[in-house]
Amino acid sequence: MTDTQTITCPACGGANDPEAGTTHMACTYCGTNLTIPSHLRTKAVPKVAQTASKAKTISIPEIDAPDLIRKTQPVAIKAFNLYAYWAWLRWLLPTCLTILVLGFILCAVLGALPFVFKLLK
């Protein structure tokens, strides 16, 4: 080994630079497996991965309005349908109760008519 920074391949004689943090490597010329001597081994330098900071989105009402309307439209439709059902029930229930009471009164009157006619004779 002529240089302290390189490893000479015993198969082809090519000079190879050892990779940091490894004990074995392949020759870059012929692919022979090489063992890095302990005096040439270096610790791997940790790579710092920089995370891209998310840009804050600025909400502009004039631009975002169509999307907001599109997202809230199903909610508005359901609310309107619920109101329509409530208004219909608000009309229907008193009407049904009124018809029911009038029907009972009419049945009572019509049922009592034969007795009234017998009394008048």
Classify the helix fraction into a percent range.
40-55%
Residue runs with pLDDT of under 50 for 5 or more positions: none
Helical stretch tally: 1
Derived structural class: mainly alpha
Q: How many discrete domains?
A: 2
Main beta sheet strand tally, sense and closure: 2 strands, antiparallel
Number of strands: 4
Lateral arrangement of strands in the main beta sheet: 1-2
Rg calc: 47 Å
Strand proportion: 5-15%
Compressed to H and E, one letter per element, the order equals EEEEH
Distance between the termini: 143 Å
Mean pLDDT: 83
How would you sum up the global shape?
Answer: rod-shaped
Question: Would you write up a description of this structure?
Answer:
- The protein is mainly α and 121 residues long.
- The protein folds into two domains: 43 residues, no CATH class; 61 residues.
- The protein contains one helix and four strands.
- The protein has a two-stranded antiparallel ribbon with strand order 1-2. Strands 3-4 form a two-stranded antiparallel ribbon.
- A hairpin with a 6-residue loop joins strand 3 and strand 4.
- The chain is rod-shaped.
Task: Provide a concise account of the structure shown.
The chain has 121 residues and is mainly alpha-helical. The chain contains one helix and four strands; from the N terminus they run ββββα.
SSE layout and pairings?
Elements: E1 7-8, E2 15-16, E3 24-26, E4 33-35, H1 61-120
Antiparallel strand pairs: 1-2, 3-4
Features:
8% strand, two-stranded antiparallel sheet, 121 residues
